[in-house]
Design brief:
Largest sheet: none
Radius of gyration: 17 Å
Helix content: 55-70%
Oligomer: single chain
């Protein structure tokens, strides 16, 4: 079985992740968490709040973004860089045909 390594699926996942964070990432009510530390009742987790931080960073609310997590801007920039790299690869593959 031949595996296609063109990166289309990864590109779609990252794009949908950023769109989802932009549209729904700022939910203020804390009802459910996938964080195991939060589920065990610990009040501090190094990753908690990064999704909200990324949401507020993309919305332009930088002070709120830094309040939720200081590395939200870094997460957005890494994902944007990966989207750029995958798009560049896809364009190169299309030019080969």
């Amino acid at each position: 079985m031949k595996v296609n390594h063109s990166g289309v699926l990864e590109l779609m996942v990252w794009l949908l992740a950023l769109i989802g964070l932009y549209a729904f990432g700022g939910a203020s009510a804390h009802t459910f968490s996938l964080c195991p530390l939060d589920n065990f009742g610990l009040t501090w987790c190094p990753g908690c709040g990064i999704g909200r931080s990324m949401h507020y960073f993309m919305m332009g609310d930088f002070s709120n973004s830094l309040t939720y997590h200081p590395l939200g801007w870094f997460g957005v920039s890494v994902i944007l860089f990966r989207i750029y790299e995958l798009t560049k690869l896809k364009i190169k593959l299309w030019q080969m045909y």
